[in-house]
Amino acid sequence: MADVLPQADQEIDARGLNCPLPILRTKKALARLESGQVLAVLTTDPHAVRDFQAFCQQTGNALLVQETREEAVTVHYVRRR
Fold this sequence. Notes:
By secondary structure, the protein is of the alpha+beta class. It has one domain: 2-Layer Sandwich (Translation Initiation Factor IF3), CATH 3.30.110. The protein is built from 2 helices and 4 strands. The protein has helices at residues 21-31, 48-59; strands spanning 10-14, 38-43, 62-68, 74-79. It has a 4-stranded mixed β-sheet with strand order 1-2-4-3, with helices on one face. It is globular and about 30 Å long. 23% of the residues are buried. The mean pLDDT is 95.
């Protein structure tokens, strides 16, 4: 892959969890990060892509990249505002 993925300061594993749990865990983890730090969230919920887009739009955090990996795992890179 030619694109360079952001360097995550923290990663949380929300695989196997359905909405709203990945977003709730993300919100909790972002609260512990400093402004500008990046959180990587692993999800398997097919609705998570839209959920993370809406969450970031509503909260002002930056959704940097959403990358789908093998076995339907999507990694969402979120920069704290």
